[in-house]
Amino acid sequence: MNKIFAKVSAVLVSLMVMSGAAVAIAGDEKQQFEKPSFSPGDYWVYSTPKGQMRKEYVGEEDGYHVFMIKGQRELLDADLNIKGENRITFKFPLSIGKHWTYEYERRQPNRNIPVVVSCHVKGIERVETAAGTFQALNITCDEDSKLQKGLTLSSYSYWYAPEVKNLIKNTKEMVLKEYKIKK
């Protein structure tokens, strides 16, 4: 009986993986993905609706990671969040089921709208990009108005691949095209 159950389980998992469905293999729920480390020269190239974007790591400054994007310096903290912004894209270590929230003000022409953002690591998915196929953490976020309870202003997802040490895709049509990192 146990052998039959094991074979059926193996076939079902194989079918789910081949179909691209999100699969959390036993034990993955407890696995933690630590913040990445970078080396000068590591880079990622993304396709976006506005064209190609290259992001290159150039070093550290005052405890921040320094990246060059379109000729501009961008400083990211240890959790890869942009210095000076209240947005918390990542909250390492990442693990399936992890939740975090933060608040910021969405700038509008007439006034700023206070927003509460709730993010959740849904699971691990097999994601295909021009740079390859990766096992990536699917992170979803909902932006809710603090002024009107129950009003969701936007929802989005992004996928972080530990192997790539960065985002590989988001729902705003940004997709990894190529990358080079020192392992």
Description:
By secondary structure, the protein is mainly β. It has a single domain, classed as YmcC-like fold (Beta Barrel), CATH 2.40.360. Helices cover 10% and strands 49% of the residues. The chain contains one helix and ten strands. The strands form two sheets. The protein has a five-stranded antiparallel sheet, with no helix packed on it. Strand 8 and strand 9 form a beta hairpin. The chain is globular.
SSE inventory with pairings:
Blueprint: H1 2-19, E1 43-48, E2 51-61, E3 64-69, E4 72-76, E5 99-107, E6 112-129, E7 132-145, E8 152-161, E9 166-170, E10 175-180
Antiparallel strand pairs: 1-2, 1-10, 2-3, 3-4, 5-6, 6-7, 7-8, 8-9
Describe the structure concisely for a colleague.
The chain is mostly beta strands. The protein has one helix at residues 2-19, and strands spanning 43-48, 51-61, 64-69, 72-76, 99-107, 112-129, 132-145, 152-161, 166-170, 175-180. It has a single domain (21-180), classed as YmcC-like fold (Beta Barrel).
CATH topology: YmcC-like fold
Give the C-level CATH assignment.
Answer: Mainly Beta
Which class of secondary structure composition applies to the elements? Answer: mainly beta
CATH architecture assignment name: Beta Barrel
Mean pLDDT: 85
Task: Flag low-confidence runs.
Answer: 1-27
Proportion in helices: under 10%
Cα Rg? 19 Å
Number of domains: 1
The major sheet is characterized as: 5 strands, antiparallel
- The strand count comes to 10
In whole angstroms, the N-to-C terminal distance is 44 Å
Which oligomerization state do the chains in this entry correspond to? single chain
Number of helices: 1
List the secondary-structure elements in sequence, H or E.
Answer: HEEEEEEEEEE
Spatial strand order of the main sheet? 4-3-2-1-10
| Beta content | over 45%
